[in-house]
Amino acid sequence: MDKVEYIAKNYRDMKMKLHLVQEKLLNYRPISENSVIQSLVFEKSEHEKVKKSKNHGRSELISLSFREKQEQENQEYLSSLLNTYYCLKMDLYYFEFVMELIPEDLKPLAKDLIYLGKSWTELEEIYEISHSTLAYRRRKILKQIRKCYRWTSKSLELKVEDYHIPI
Questions:
Q1: Which of 7, 54, 145, 156 keeps 20 to 30 A from 41, CA to CA?
Q2: Domain for residue 67, yes or no?
């Protein structure tokens, strides 16, 4: 499955994910101190287990480690949110742009199939066409979209991990 087919099949879910990520960005809250403490508890230390020196400054080291870890996790979380938002926004924007370029005779069917997510049974009844004709027209729509992607050198490679919403 390439990017065009994936977006065509999952368009409505991707739009929902985009709105969820956008909402997370608009209401961004840094990672809580408890989450950072939990990650520090389960993180393996790279330092020696046994030291020959006394524990001078241990509390200072712990607090510095805590602050660094909190900043790092907040930065990673925000970066992940922004990356997901950017990937979804750009892929959906370009897909919608190309959808406007498909032939006029296929546009209503393409919009019902992809944007509205109507079932094949519904579409067969609405357009009074057979299952095989619907399959042929769907392939024709996707072929036209792929052609536009190739003309503009847009990648058809699918990276589903780009659409993952960080928790």
A1: 54
A2: yes
Written as six digits, the tokens of 88 are 């979804």
Q: Extract the residue ranges of the chain whose pLDDT is less than 70.
A: 33-64
Distances (CA, A) of 39 to 36, 47, 49, 58, 75: 5, 17, 19, 19, 15
Question: Looking at the 3D structure of the chain, how many domains does it have?
Answer: 1
And the tokens for 65?
């480690």
DSSP tally for the chain: helices H, then strands E: 6, 0
- Reading the block at residue 22, the tokens are 């956008």
What's the pLDDT score for residue 47?
Answer: 55
Burial, 60: exposed, middle or buried (Cβ in 10 Å; 0-12, 13-18, 19+)?
exposed
Which H or E element spans position 89?
Answer: helix 58-99
Q: What domain range includes position 37?
A: 3-41+57-163
Structure tokens at 77: 């979380």
